[in-house]
From TrEMBL, chain A:
<feature type="transmembrane region" description="Helical">
    <location>
        <begin position="171"/>
        <end position="192"/>
    </location>
</feature>
<dbReference type="InterPro" id="IPR005625">
    <property type="entry name" value="PepSY-ass_TM"/>
</dbReference>
<protein>
    <submittedName>
        <fullName>Iron-regulated membrane protein</fullName>
    </submittedName>
</protein>
<feature type="transmembrane region" description="Helical">
    <location>
        <begin position="126"/>
        <end position="150"/>
    </location>
</feature>
<feature type="transmembrane region" description="Helical">
    <location>
        <begin position="317"/>
        <end position="338"/>
    </location>
</feature>
<dbReference type="Pfam" id="PF03929">
    <property type="entry name" value="PepSY_TM"/>
</dbReference>
<keyword id="KW-1133">Transmembrane helix</keyword>
<keyword id="KW-0812">Transmembrane</keyword>
<keyword id="KW-0472">Membrane</keyword>
TrEMBL record, chain B:
<keyword id="KW-0472">Membrane</keyword>
<feature type="transmembrane region" description="Helical">
    <location>
        <begin position="38"/>
        <end position="58"/>
    </location>
</feature>
<keyword id="KW-0812">Transmembrane</keyword>
<keyword id="KW-1133">Transmembrane helix</keyword>
<protein>
    <submittedName>
        <fullName>Uncharacterized protein</fullName>
    </submittedName>
</protein>
<feature type="transmembrane region" description="Helical">
    <location>
        <begin position="12"/>
        <end position="32"/>
    </location>
</feature>
Length: 361, 63
């Protein structure tokens, strides 16, 4: 119960992470330029990111669909380090560095880490994932108990003139049964999110290994083909899709010999599903492009359904309302359990006293 | 609206409709954009207000 309350409380500000980061100065301020200002070549962006972080290696470039004038670069001391040591935000129109952050910086970064793994890494994530399953089980047991408790009452009855325990029992039942679909969706998608690292490893060892198998023993090219050329090849192959992320050769998301360009669809749903296009980093040729496996697609779809950040500010506000409602259900459940325990203890003690007293009487 | 012994009290149909409306809103906002996002948020808001009003309403028997 305490962990579920922690998840609901830390999750509340995270619904507005974008707005809060912006207000606290953790979002890059994008300069106003004339509309239609063209983007500079990506090779220049990559060079600017590397020049900004001497001694670090560029791992990936991420293109935010909501902020098309910027690109996020991830850099680290080694190619395989995950997560990256540094994030640099650059202007796509000027290659100017707009922000330079450590991942997870600021109060929202702190809350996010507390919410995702309690600063314990993978074990923390898996533990909280198990808590998500316990939450789902608690909801189902609540549905089972709702019928017997409500059999003589109308829907929505709150007996305010009865004891505090009865009043809170009625509110617990009413809010709990009304928010169960939302709570089940958020709870189960949260659990799926805690398996992200494992799913990624499964994909790397499965589909990605299969796609790059012909290159297993091929040495890394001495000179890499232009990033713009690789992107152009991926765009041509993917039709109407747009690039969301480019992983550089040698990182965990590609092979030693490939740029992996992750393309996203153009509809609200397919924009969340990525398709990797592998581009030979020596020749610039497309070598493979496939839809990602079902479990990765499920992970991509579970992320917006957990965070509630996919439908604009009105949906975020109602998401926060439902989160507060869940906090009320958890807190009232805890209160009811404590009151019941307190009232049961004297009865138990009295019955024990009676039992021990009987033989001597 | 008072409870009567043995009569149905809508303890299942209303929550079932709210659950269905919630799922429609969440999935609808995921697969569509623009006005559908706002409609989904509106439906969730209306259902939340209905539940709150049901809880705050004074019953005929003074409950």
């Amino acid at each position: 119960m305490a962990f579920l309350l922690l998840l609901c409380l830390t999750g509340l500000p995270l619904i507005f992470h974008h707005e809060l980061n912006h207000a606290l100065g953790y979002e890059a301020a994008v300069p106003d330029l004339a509309p239609g200002t063209p983007f500079v070549p990506l090779d220049r962006i990559a060079a600017a990111a590397i020049a900004h972080k001497p001694g670090e290696i560029l791992q990936f470039l991420y293109f935010d669909p909501d902020e098309t004038n910027t690109v996020l670069a991830g850099l680290s001391k080694t190619l395989k380090t995950a997560p990256s040591d540094s994030f640099v935000v650059l202007d796509r129109r000027t290659a100017q560095v707009l922000a330079d952050d450590k991942p997870g910086a600021g109060p929202i970064g702190f809350l996010l880490q507390l919410h995702t793994d309690m600063f314990l890494g993978l074990p923390g994530k898996l533990f909280l994932g198990a808590m998500g399953l316990v939450f789902a089980a608690a909801i189902i047991s609540g549905i089972v108990l709702y019928g017997p408790f409500m059999k003589k009452l109308d829907f929505g009855t709150v007996r305010r003139k009865r004891s505090s325990r009865i009043k809170w029992l009625d509110w617990h039942n009413l809010i709990g049964i009304s928010t169960l679909a939302w709570a089940l969706v958020v709870g189960t998608t949260g659990t799926v999110n805690t398996w992200a690292d494992l799913m990624l490893k499964m994909w790397q060892g499965g589909q990605l290994a299969e796609m790059t198998a012909p290159y297993r023993d091929v040495p890394r090219p001495l000179t890499l083909v232009s990033l713009d050329a690789a992107m152009s090849t991926a765009r041509t192959a993917a039709g109407t899709m747009t690039p969301r992320l480019v992983a550089f050769p040698g990182t965990g998301f590609s092979s030693n010999n490939h740029y992996a360009v992750f393309m996203a669809g153009s509809t609200p749903l397919t924009a969340r599903l990525l398709m990797p296009a592998l581009i030979d980093a020596g020749t610039g040729q497309l070598t493979d492009m496939r839809a990602m496996p079902w479990y990765i697609q499920a992970l991509f779809l579970s992320q917006p359904l957990h965070f509630g950040d996919y439908g604009g500010l009105p949906l975020k506000i109602i998401w926060a309302v439902l989160d507060v409602a869940t906090i009320v259900v958890l807190a009232s459940g805890l209160y009811l359990w404590l009151v019941r325990r307190r009232s049961a203890l004297p009865r138990l003690t009295a019955s024990r006293t009676l039992t021990t007293a009987e033989p001597g009487e | 609206m008072t409870a009567t012994r043995g009569a149905p009290h809508r303890i299942w149909p209303i929550p079932a409709m709210i659950a269905a409306g919630t799922l429609i809103s969440l999935v609808g906002a995921l697969v569509a954009d623009g006005i559908w996002d706002r409609l989904a948020a509106l439906l969730l808001l209306v259902m939340s207000l209905y539940v709150l009003a049901a809880g705050l309403r004074l019953r005929e028997n003074g409950r």
